[in-house]
Amino acid sequence: MSRSLGQLTVTSPAPGGGPGAGPGPHLPLFVLGTEADEHSERGVSCPGELPSPSDPALVRRAEQARDELGDRAFILGHHYQRDEVIGFADVTGDSFKLAREAAARPAAEYVVFCGVHFMAESADILTSDAQQVVLPDLAAGCSMADMATYTQVEECWEALEDLGVADDVVPVTYMNSSADIKAFTGRHGGTVCTSSNAQRALSWALGKGSKVLFLPDQHLGRNTAVLELGMDLDDCVVWNPHRPGGGLDAEALRKATMILWRGHCSVHGRFTADNVTEIRRRIPGVNVLVHPECVHEVVTAADQIGSTEKIIATIEQAPAGSAWAVGTELNLVQRLAAAHQDKTVVYLDKTVCYCSTMNRIDLPHLVWALESLASGQVVNRITVDPLTATQARAALDQMLALP
Ligand code: SF4
Questions:
Q1: Considering the entire predicted model, what is its pTM?
Q2: How many angstroms separate the alpha carbon of residue 353 from the centre of ligand 1?
Q3: Is residue 329 within 6 Å of ligand 1 at its C-beta?
């Protein structure tokens, strides 16, 4: 890796890439706090005077600011957040549930989103103009969402047009994408999907066109296509935005049903089939439950696959005495283990891994955001421009209308 003050250039291999992975791209990154890239989630600045993490009054300060704000503020907490933050959430959930919860509370002038940047964007798109969405730390991005930039996706689409296949392609983007990518999808008649409704989204798209461009998580796209729609792995190709022509020849693109974007989640992409083998050896009779963002070899080795909400429901409904190894973000697994002590709930990997960007929202940032709002200063507001919001909203509305 070479480093200058303003930018980093990363040349290390991309982890968790599965099929299509290889030597890593030259990916420019901004050093946190030095510059901002308005067209992606990379390198956003992190302004402000934060309380010290060792301030013993942090909890009291958060409670006091929360009380002062009353119904004017609504705090959303994603399932992968730290305990110290989730304790202040008015509601917890996955990204789409949280955005809808915010929209359902128009009296809340401030929506404090304890999640990552694309989630706050979605909340801004779905809430009224009178509501302001605040992300307590602007550096809380999502590495997966960053793997599909607007320019890269436009280049891909132009290549499909040059090949004469774009009219057959329906774009489907995972909720975990920037507002720009959701807008691209809406503009081209596609839909957003979540990990809960990806199968319905793909079925709908393939009733409309003969191919899907699936953004940005190749694993959710592949796992859904193969395990839920019965496609072959050969029906899927991976578009690498860092190679000319996506690294694919015309014949491969013409033949493919699923054109998967070469993106992945840095948390779920870490789990391996060896983790599954090892945990079965260590805990005989264990049920392996993983998120569909895991690589194909992991989900095929697991006993059950489920979205974050489904993972929570599965553990809640499991009989006392049962044992579960869960392949998803560690904060959630730890909370599930603590809440269900009549069951064995363990993390699938021996090496612990939090979502590092999600974890940037900590108690000092929450206190800083709440105290600022209570004093009348709106900080770290996330806004999506009206045209992008309208086009992204079209793709979100299409998801809500999925049969
Ligand atoms: S867990 Fe993965 S997909 Fe979710 S915010 Fe973190 S990097 Fe992004």
A1: 0.86
A2: 11
A3: yes
